[in-house]
Specification:
By secondary structure, the protein is an alpha/beta fold. It has 9 helices and 9 strands.
Length: 239
């Protein structure tokens, strides 16, 4: 197979990922080309900046496509021996690219320079694309897996924003209210740091318990919007 044919096959992955032909076709594509994915990602990313997906021509900014490229590279390494998990991961990342349309224009330049974001999630792979996108927009993103790690980080480092899931496993125990507990702990600190919940349970969260949060999102575009609004002032020390 030529380089061009490989790139075309990988580009087809984007269309498959947003269509209903799932999971068999996408799994087959990823299984056949999993060794080539990383090698041809730069060309794939270039062509995805203007791609026809499901019959519609979409244009994406370099920032958004580069974030996708890095996410898929991470997934290809993490799931290199698990094509089914890689298929699910890539499909999810491509769908996020098509969802975050706010950065499809030239004005999408790095706007979060030197902003420090602490991301609390027991499964950081859930947020690879979003994290890469925030980094491309200029932020420094630090992932931790538990409330304890988050509070320890905050004791030693400045921070402009905390992003947290709601339920997570901490100390080998399922804690369905871990995010609420983190928010309560942040509110008890002398130095306030805004928190955004990023969870598939956003619509079902206890409104009273998240009143002190900056917001809750279950979609990449919502998260980016809330983050931009939370960090619209300058970095700490420049407000």
């Amino acid at each position: 197979m030529t380089t061009q044919e490989t790139v075309d096959a990988l580009l087809k992955l984007a269309e498959i990922a947003t269509a209903c032909v799932w999971p068999v076709t996408l799994l087959l594509v990823l299984y056949l080309f999993r060794a080539a994915i990383r090698a041809f990602l730069p060309e794939l990313a270039r062509r995805l900046q203007r791609a026809e997906i499901a019959g519609t021509t979409l244009e994406f900014s370099e920032i958004a496509v580069d974030a996708l490229q890095e996410a898929i590279e991470t997934g290809a390494q993490e799931y290199k021996d698990e094509p089914e998990k890689l298929a699910s991961f890539v499909r999810n990342q491509v769908s996020k690219l098509t969802a975050v349309r706010a950065f499809a224009s030239p004005e999408a330049q790095p706007r979060l320079k030197r902003r420090i974001i602490l991301w609390v999630d027991d499964n950081p792979m859930n947020n690879v694309y979003e994290s890469n996108l925030l980094k491309r927009l200029g932020a420094d993103v630090y992932p931790v897996r538990s409330t304890q790690e988050a509070l320890a980080f905050l004791e030693q480092n400045p921070c402009d924003l905390v992003i947290s899931d709601l339920s997570r496993v901490e100390g080998e125990r399922e804690k369905p209210e871990a995010g609420y507990e983190l928010l309560d702990a942040l509110n008890r600190r002398d130095q306030q740091v805004p928190l955004i919940f990023y969870t598939g349970q956003a619509a079902r969260m206890n409104k009273k318990r998240i009143r002190a949060a900056h917001g809750a999102a279950d979609h990449p575009s919502q998260l980016i919007d809330l983050t931009m609004r939370a960090l619209q002032a300058g970095p700490r020390g420049e407000e």
